[in-house]
Design goal:
There is one protein chain. 35% of the residues lie in helices and 28% in strands. It is of the alpha/beta class and 391 residues long. It has a domain of 234 residues: FAD/NAD(P)-binding domain (3-Layer(bba) Sandwich), CATH 3.50.50.60. The strands form four sheets. Strands 7-6-15-16-17-14-18-21 form an eight-stranded mixed β-sheet, with helices on both faces. A six-stranded mixed β-sheet has the order 9-3-2-13-20-19. A hairpin with a 5-residue loop joins strand 11 and strand 12. The longest helix is centred in the last third of the chain and has 28 residues. The protein is globular. It starts with a strand and ends in a 6-residue tail after the last helix. The model has no long low-confidence stretch (mean pLDDT 95). It comes from Microbacterium enclense.
């Protein structure tokens, strides 16, 4: 027997976008049900990086004391671009008067889950959405944690269920309907027990390929270096990993320690052909993905939610569809700006497998143009810190 739940908004996916949307809807007095096929422990323990734009932090502030972005996260007022053995600081405060916060995504999720459960949110883990039936009263067809048939009937459905979205088919007609680009390289990431090698992130361009020196805490650091997409994480010894990282950050001595996690992160860009159809809309990775170089992924999702929450308030409280009709065009402007910025940062900093000497020298010229130009530094700072959320 199928269990049916009725609500105003059904949200598929308990990631940052889905959880924050449920919070913003509650503030407007609109009830929602949030489901996710993962367990709470799986969501909170999957370690993922996180650079939060200032606007994202300000929006997370609205969940109250549960948000630890400002107290546990680390404010960064700049980054370093390193090439030809020299570092060049991009000063965000001087260029655009804004900042970013280093705060991992899984910590954001812990904050949001705690806040939503404390508020009485109907949040259901272990529920697998199988399909979305679009219409005047759309339905989420799913199975609960025990495998029993389960469905949600709502006035609107939001797909925030990640890059392998089930909801996407109800909007675009297929799970893969979109604009797609795959890059010919990936990042080999390591987590290590060591003090920070730098106070701010280092984005390093070298003849051997790209490297990123990031941080997690006073004792745990995150670093990446460019690799082939099919690289085996077991292909390197720990000593070889440190050698590979160090040679790609000339001029900075990395502080080393035991490596306790390693993974390979593939580079893909995607934007769904459609972002809303009828009473179903997409947000976050269900709608778009970007390479991690520009730190736009979670921030784009939050920006989507800000726009969609306003549109749903107008629709469900006032019967006004104008903002909802404008939703795809409104968020697409930001999405494609972020796609460009992510592509630009990626192409400027990474060594393409087929790069020639001309390509290498052109790339260095581009880097010099950025760091030696007030306008170049300002563009990087503005895009990295994020465009205003208000639309």
């Amino acid at each position: 027997m199928t269990t049916t739940v009725r609500t105003r908004v059904a949200i598929v996916g308990a990631g940052p976008a889905g959880l924050l949307l449920s919070h913003l809807l509650e503030q407007a007095g609109i009830e929602s049900v949030v489901i996710d096929q993962r367990s709470r422990d799986e969501i909170e323990s999957t370690i993922r990086a996180g650079i939060l734009e200032q606007g994202t932090v300000e929006l997370l502030d609205t969940i109250g004391p549960a948000s630890r972005a400002r107290t546990v996260g680390h404010r960064h007022d700049g980054i370093e671009l390193r090439f030809e053995g020299e570092g060049h600081r991009i000063d965000f405060a001087a260029s655009v008067g804004r900042a970013v916060w280093l705060y991992p995504q899984h910590e954001v999720l812990k904050d949001l889950i705690a806040a939503r459960l404390a508020a009485g949110q109907d949040l259901r883990f272990g529920v697998t959405a199988e399909r979305i039936e679009n219409g005047d009263r759309p339905r989420v067809i799913a199975r609960d944690a025990d495998g029993a048939p389960f469905e949600i009937e709502a006035e609107f459905v939001v797909g925030s269920d990640g890059s392998r979205s089930v909801a996407r088919a109800a909007v675009t007609g297929s799970s893969t309907g979109g604009y797609f680009r795959e890059y010919p390289f990936a990042w080999f990431g390591v987590l290590c027990e060591a003090p920070p090698s730098s106070d701010e992130l280092i984005y390093s361009n070298s003849p051997d390929g790209f490297a990123l020196v990031s941080q997690r805490s006073a004792t745990v650091q995150r670093m990446y270096f460019q690799c082939a997409p099919d690289t085996d994480t077991a292909a390197y010894s720990e000593a070889q990993l440190w050698d590979e990282l160090q040679k790609r950050v000339p001029g900075t001595e990395l502080k080393q320690g035991p490596i306790f996690q390693r993974d390979v992160l593939r580079f893909r860009s995607f934007v769904a052909h459609e972002l809303r159809r009828g009473r179903v809309a997409l947000v976050g990775d269900a709608a778009h993905t970007v390479p991690p170089t520009g730190a736009k992924g979670m921030n784009l999702a939050i920006a989507d939610v800000r726009v969609l929450a306003k549109a749903l308030r107008a629709l469900l409280l006032d019967g006004e569809e104008r903002l909802l009709d404008a939703y795809p065009e409104t968020v697409s402007r930001r999405i494609w700006k972020a796609q460009h910025f992510s592509w630009w940062m990626t192409s400027m900093l990474h060594a393409a497998p087929d790069a020639t000497d001309f390509d290498r020298r052109r790339q260095l010229g581009e880097l010099r143009t950025v760091v030696e130009s007030e306008h170049g530094r300002a563009y990087l700072a503005e895009a990295y810190c994020g465009w205003p959320l208000d639309v």
